[in-house]
Structure to design on (426 residues):
């Protein structure tokens, strides 16, 4: 029986947070000198830290152990140092808390890869219970949630308010594609929690920047306002259709008219509430005035645009604005056999794209700067819709520049390379 040098140590990586129990990275090698070399490689590896107790441990201690010949061959087949460093870095998942599936009633989650899945009610009392569960360790804890819209907003805000917790809200599409990369074919709450654990361990941690309460209120108001506008359009269409025939019941026509009157009163109340939220926040009030200077943007469009733009983090760049709106171009080509027509990704905020459409259509036909740009694209062979989407993107670029420099719209900056006519575009 041979003796092997065994080193067992605790690791705390720079991009991980220690939990109640430390992650243990263990490897065994038949040569004490080689084990010491591996320990030193880990000790000076970027992103790996050791406690003082571990650093002062006598790693030359030779302990008896029993290993099969196959295990010995496996230990010697590959480079020990690389495997040890990789294992230590992969142990980061043990320090991460994953909250997987958030529904109307329940929150499913797990701690790292070692503990079983737990379930908490998606209620204020359940949020407190979850907070106590996550903060039972003294160190700071990182929490990774998958975005589930309004169902997960309250718990994300509640955990974000705790200074002991760092919250990341992962993009559902990124998590889904990550699961495909892991060749995961099944889907269940435990599997999703495991996938999210792997995602949190391997992907960069991006701390969530929650929108302000004023921004959330404004977004809720303008989206409800738009929903009522769509409802009013449907009711008007029904009223028009029923009005052209004598067979329509009078009570139905009366109810439709009452419905439209109620919608109009609700829209007026929501508009006043939205303006009140904006007036109470100087930053929102200033941006609202800036948006009103954009061609094709009136009060209604400015409210819709501001309600969606208020959700974008303050440090986002203009490319991130475009991607957030789903207006970024998406190319699909490979060699000489596959060459599809480029399209916009539409992977983003559909409400923001919808709010940009009518202002872009108006600006393309009635503003000299945007009209010149619109016609220039058509002269290059672009179809009308492609040119209009480009105008939408230009409007978004203009809004970004106006917010960044706190300046009103300047048509000369839209497309300086083009000669902007002085007349109104046809």
């Amino acid at each position: 029986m041979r003796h092997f040098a065994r080193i067992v140590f605790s690791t705390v990586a720079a991009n991980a947070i220690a939990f109640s129990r430390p992650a243990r990275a263990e490897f065994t090698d038949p040569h004490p000198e080689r084990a010491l070399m591996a320990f030193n490689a880990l000790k000076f590896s970027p992103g790996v830290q050791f406690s003082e107790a571990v650093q002062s441990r006598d790693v030359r201690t030779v302990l008896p152990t029993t290993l099969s010949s196959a295990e010995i061959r496996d230990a010697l087949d590959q480079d020990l140092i690389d495997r040890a460093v990789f294992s230590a870095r992969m142990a980061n998942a043990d320090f991460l808390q994953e909250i997987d599936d958030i529904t109307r009633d329940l929150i499913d989650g797990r701690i790292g890869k070692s503990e079983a899945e737990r379930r908490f009610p998606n209620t204020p009392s359940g949020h407190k219970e979850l907070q106590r569960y996550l903060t039972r360790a003294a160190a700071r804890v990182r929490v990774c949630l998958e975005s589930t819209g309004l169902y997960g907003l309250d718990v994300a805000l509640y955990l974000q308010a705790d200074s002991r917790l760092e919250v990341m809200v992962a993009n559902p599409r990124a998590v889904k594609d990550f699961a495909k990369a892991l060749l995961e074919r099944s889907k269940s709450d435990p599997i999703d929690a495991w996938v999210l654990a792997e995602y949190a361990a391997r992907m960069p941690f991006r701390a969530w920047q929650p929108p302000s309460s004023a921004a959330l209120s404004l977004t809720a108001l303008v989206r409800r306002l738009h929903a009522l506008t769509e409802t009013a359009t449907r009711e008007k269409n029904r009223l028009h259709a029923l009005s052209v025939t004598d067979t329509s019941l009078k009570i139905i026509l009366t109810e439709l008219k009452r419905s439209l009157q109620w919608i109009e009163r609700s829209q007026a109340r929501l508009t006043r509430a939205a303006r009140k939220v904006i007036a109470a926040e100087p930053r929102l009030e200033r941006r609202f005035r800036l948006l009103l200077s954009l061609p094709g943007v009136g009060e209604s469009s400015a409210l819709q645009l501001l309600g969606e733009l208020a959700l974008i983090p303050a440090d986002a760049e203009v490319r991130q604005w475009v991607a957030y709106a789903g207006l970024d171009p998406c190319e699909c080509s490979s060699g000489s056999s596959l060459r599809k027509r480029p399209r916009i990704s539409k992977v983003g905020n559909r409400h923001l794209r919808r709010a940009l459409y009518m202002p872009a259509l108006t600006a393309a036909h009635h503003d000299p700067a945007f009209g010149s740009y619109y016609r220039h694209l058509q002269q290059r062979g672009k179809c009308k819709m492609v040119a209009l989407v480009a105008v939408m993107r230009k409007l978004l670029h203009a809004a970004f520049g106006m917010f960044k420099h706190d300046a009103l719209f300047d048509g000369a900056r839209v497309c300086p390379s083009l000669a902007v006519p002085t007349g109104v575009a046809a």
Notes: Residues 212-280 form one domain. DSSP finds 16 helices and 13 strands in the chain.
